[in-house]
Amino acid sequence: MESVKIKAYAKINLHLDVVSKYENGYHEVRTVMQSVSLCDEVEVALNGTGKNSLWCDIPTVPTDEKNSAWRAADMFFERCGLKLGADIRINKRIPVAAGMAGGSTDGAAVFKALNILCKEPLTEDELLELGGKLGADVPFCISGGTKYGDGTGAQLHGFPEMPHCHLVIACGTEGVSTPWAYSVLDGLYGNFADGEYTPSDIDRLKSALVSCDLKSTVDNMYNIFESAVEPHRPDVTRIKNALLESGALGAMMSGSGPSVFGIFENVDQARDAVSVLEAMKIQAFVAEPVKGI
C-alpha cells in the first residue's frame, strides 16, 4: 500500500520568555523557534479498517492514543469526515522528553503525510489550525524554519532566518516535566503578576538575524527556563560548560530542558564536542538549521 515518509524535525528555542499567566493557568509566552536537521522519520500509510496502528523503535514510547502521532491521525480523519485508519511507523532520533518537540513533530508529520495521501483536503492554514488543537508546538512543527510565536506559542509570525551554522544538541540523563518547570517559574517570578517580571528584549536578537551576524545572534539568545531548571539539573550546566570549552560560540538550554545546544562556526569543532560529550556518557548530535515551508 502507498505510504509517505516525512522527516519530523526537532525544534530548539533561540528565545523563550514568559510574559504573563492567564486566568486559566496557561502562560503567555514569546519565543523564537528554529527547526534543526536532527529528526525522526515518520512513515504513514492508509488502511480501510478505521483503526490506527503505531510502531516505534523505542520501546518506551506509547503506541496508542497517548502518542501525539496517533491522536493526529484521529483528528485528521474526523476533520475530513473520512472513515479510514492510519498505519504509522516512527524511527526516533530525537531524545524523548528533552524539550525539542519530539512528540509534537511526530504529530505534525502525520498531519502532513495524511494530507498528501488523501490528496490535500486541507489547506496549509487549515492544517496549522488543526495542529494548534493537538498542541502548542505542532503548528510550528508543520511550518518549520525560524518563527516567532506568541500567545501560547501556537500563534506564529515570520522572523528573520538563522544564519547557517553547526549545532551540537545534547541531552542529559534526567528528564524535565514541563508543568513542573512552569511551577518553579511561577514561584521565582510571583506567578508573573504585574510588575513582578520584566520580559527580556527580543529586538536585539531580531537585528542580529537580519544582519546574519552569528556571534551577535548567540549573544542575544535567552531562555527563562534556565533560571528554573538548571539549579535542579546539574547535567545542563555540565553540558553547557563542555560545549563552551569545545569552542562553541554559545550554549543554551532549549525549551524547558533538559536538552542543551551549542552553536559552532566550524563543523570539526562540533564533531569534537560530540566526542567529548559521549565520553561523559551524554547523548549528543551534530545538526544544522533547517528552513521552513
Structural class: alpha+beta
| CATH fold field value of the largest domain | Ribosomal Protein S5, domain 2
Separate helix tally: 10
- Main β-sheet, in a few words? 7 strands, mixed
Shape: globular
**Second rung of CATH, namely the architecture of the largest domain:** 2-Layer Sandwich
Compute the average pLDDT.
94
Number-wise, the strands total 11
Beta content: 25-35%
CATH class of the largest domain: Alpha Beta
Measured on Cα atoms, how large is the radius of gyration?
19 Å
Number of domains: 2
As a percent range, the share of helical residues equals: 25-40%
Write a compact overview of the structure shown.
The chain is about 35% helix and about 30% strand. The protein is of the alpha+beta class and about 290 residues long. It starts with a strand and ends in a 6-residue tail after the last strand.
